[in-house]
Structures are given as C-alpha cells and as structure tokens.
C-alpha cells in the first residue's frame, strides 16, 4: 500500500530545491516545537557507548548528530545528495566525522546485511517514502535481535478543538513560503503529507503487523506529532 502517492522523483526534486532552507521549513511545519520533540525522542532510545545506529531519511543530520552524542557509531542514510552535502557540513562543524558515516540510499531497499544495527531511527521521513511498510520491513531486517526501531513523525490530533486548529493551520501554512522565498507548491506538499499521514494508532498497528513488539506510543503536543518505539525480539 502506498502511503505517499507523490512520484518518488518529484519528492527527490523537491528536497533538492528546499535543501538550503530545510531546517527552517521543518521548524515552520512543526510550529517551532520539533526541537523539543527531538529531545523527547532521544530520551526514549536505549543507547550506550557501544551502540551502532542507523538514521534513515537523515536529511540535514539533526537526528544523526543527536544519536552520535550517545552512541558509538551512526550511519545516516538519505536519498538526496544535496541534503547529504548540508549534513556533512554540519557534521564537520560538530567535529563528529569519526562517529558518523553518511551514505546515499533507499530506505525501502537498505544496502546492509541483516542484524547489523542496535537501533534504527527515522525522524520526519516516514511520511515521505512511497511505501512506509517496506521501510519498516527493511528496518526490522537490519536490526539486531533486541534492537529498537524508533519513529518521530507528524500525526493526527484526536482532540476535536486541536484538530480543528491544526487543519486551519495547514490551510495557511503554504503561504509561509514567502518568508523563505520558497516555492508555494513545496510547502503544499509538506502540508499535505503531514495532514494525510497515518494516525498514531494506524502506525502502531503497521509496526506490529511487520514484526515489532512492545510498541510504545508517545503523543506530542495533543497528538500533532508522535513517537513510536518498537522492539525486534
């Protein structure tokens, strides 16, 4: 089942265009609260100085860098070279080259052997892949037994008032393009995928259907975002 019906090449081209201002756009789409969400996300991961991690759809490497502060080694994977160039620059600035490796690749067809990683993460990326189930299946395959798969993503508020406000926000959101001199259609895409992605309950079920157990869900900001953490037994 396709969870993102926008052609993959179109999504790739979009991220090539927005790469220089991606961090700003991410702050806008999450109303500036994505940084606090990331902190909560990191606290839920069972990492130590020996952990080997994979960060999917790593983008500009914010989550990759966060992981490297707690883990031994982190591989960041993304399908867009322009995003990876920005990520590499940030990693050099943080002097984390010895702990982070970046590669271009497909989250639905990972170039790694089975049972390779202690933890696999994906932050604000699952809604952009054509088939979320394939990404989840591949994450399960490359995880070691006992490993964690963790997702930080936009979600659907369940409170009626919050949901109404959220929907209204996404109607005006594309017009923020003027603030960053961006393309209004790019903002419309981000708005659309945020509104139409799986609910927290649906994503939990999808993780369980693909082998993950003890799936814990933490809803963020009245359900506007969600953290899912599942285990491979």
TrEMBL record:
Pfam families membership: Ubie_methyltran
Catalyzed reactions per annotation: a 2-demethylmenaquinol + S-adenosyl-L-methionine = a menaquinol + S-adenosyl-L-homocysteine + H(+)
Question: Pathway membership of this protein?
Answer: Quinol/quinone metabolism; menaquinone biosynthesis; menaquinol from 1,4-dihydroxy-2-naphthoate: step 2/2
Membrane-spanning segments: none
Entries under SUPFAM superfamilies matching the protein: S-adenosyl-L-methionine-dependent methyltransferases (SSF53335)
Question: What keywords is this UniProt entry annotated with?
Answer: Menaquinone biosynthesis, Methyltransferase, S-adenosyl-L-methionine, Transferase
- Entry's Gene Ontology BP terms: menaquinone biosynthetic process; methylation
- Binding of S-adenosyl-L-methionine occurs at 60, 78, 106-107
Protein function? Methyltransferase required for the conversion of demethylmenaquinol (DMKH2) to menaquinol (MKH2).
- Record's protein name: Demethylmenaquinone methyltransferase
**Which organism does this record belong to?**
Lactobacillus crispatus
Tell me what gene encodes this: ubiE
């Amino acid at each position: 089942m396709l969870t993102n019906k926008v052609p993959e090449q179109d999504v790739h081209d979009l991220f090539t265009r927005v790469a220089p201002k991606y961090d700003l756009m991410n702050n806008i789409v999450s109303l500036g609260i994505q940084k606090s969400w990331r902190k909560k996300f990191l606290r839920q991961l069972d990492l130590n100085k020996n952990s080997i991690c994979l960060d999917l759809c790593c983008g500009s490497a914010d989550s990759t860098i966060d992981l490297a502060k707690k883990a031994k080694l982190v591989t960041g994977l993304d399908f867009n070279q322009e995003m990876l160039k920005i990520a590499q620059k940030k990693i050099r600035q943080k002097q984390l080259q010895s702990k982070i490796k970046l590669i271009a690749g497909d989250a639905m067809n990972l170039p790694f052997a089975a049972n390779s990683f202690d933890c696999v993460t994906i932050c604000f990326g699952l809604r952009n892949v054509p088939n979320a189930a394939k990404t989840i299946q591949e994450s399960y395959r490359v995880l070691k037994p006992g490993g964690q798969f963790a997702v930080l993503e936009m979600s659907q508020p369940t409170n009626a008032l919050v949901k109404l406000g959220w929907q209204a926000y996404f109607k005006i959101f594309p017009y923020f393009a003027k603030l960053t001199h961006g393309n209004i259609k790019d903002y419309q895409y981000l708005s659309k995928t945020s509104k139409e992605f799986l609910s927290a309950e649906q994503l939990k079920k999808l993780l369980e259907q693909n082998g993950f157990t003890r799936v814990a869900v933490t809803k963020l900001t009245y359900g506007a975002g969600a953290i899912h953490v599942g285990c491979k037994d």
